[in-house]
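[SOLVED] Predicted holo structure with zinc ion

Edit: marking solved, answer below. Original request kept for reference. I posted the sequence and ligand SMILES and asked for the 3D complex as structure tokens.
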Amino acid sequence: MIIFPLKKSYPHLRLEALVTRVSPTHPSYETIVSDLGKRKIGYFGEERASYFFTLLPSDTCLIFHGLRLNVDNLYFQMDVLVLTPSFILVFEVKNSTRHLHYDSKTEQFYKIETDGRKVGTYNPIEQVHNQAYLLSRWLQVKGVEQLPIDYYVVRSNPKSVLEITGSAPHITSKFISSENIPNTVRKVDARNFPIILDKKTMKKVNQKLLHSHEDLHLDLFKTYDLTHDDIHVGVICKDCGSRPMVKKRNGWLCPDCTSIDKNSWKLAVDDWFYIMNEGITAKTCQHFLQLDSRHQAKRLLAQLPLEIVGENIKTTYFRKE
Ligand SMILES: [Zn+2]
């Protein structure tokens, strides 16, 4: 059963908003585009693998996509966690199109560049192994009885090949393809681990995991060396990408392509929350949506399901988590 469904991560959504509001001539623009590209590739790979997780028995397998937890002041994020009454599995999903090589003599992973150079790369098995270790620590801290935890790397791109020099069964056994996910879970299940979590405890652990998830909140301004002046204001036209759309009685008008949209301003407010990562006041909203008055902004904000803090001019609207 999918408990925490796959969705674009918070950093992914923030980059999608940011890229539409920073000038392509800004020195950090290429980095923003590249970082968003990596997020998209990762998400696409997880989407491709997600179908195979839906094939797991829904009564015994609880599935969590992208949980980010904290233990001992360390954050760790797992692409997929499968919780069962007798064991846990952690999966790291890789969507690279490039071939991955492993040299059993040097015990190193590497990729081959187009010019033939070998370039070392991190060990994806150790990455997911560390996540499994931190998860066992997290369970310990939360007072959950220890369950066996196993971990795998999913190669979600059928075009990518793992090439091994020498013999390394400890490596090959940890890499699986997406189609192999149900079979891998069945194989672990066949080891017949004793049942440790009864139904009531499963429910408790499930709730603990959900409540402990924390999105990553980066300061985009610091990360990409941006100032508030670098962020373009105005409602963006969904049809042609122009801005600012102008508020009319019957909706928002795009001066470029003349299309009219009633809801495009909501996306601009979303952009504001994603980029600024803080509450909005009627005054800032007026400026960001390029409205004539603060009262207009207030009327629009009142239409959204936002949390309201403070009164009168100090009223600040926050997105509900
Ligand atoms: Zn337009």
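OP edit: Residues 29-53 form the longest helix (25 residues). Thanks to everyone who chimed in.
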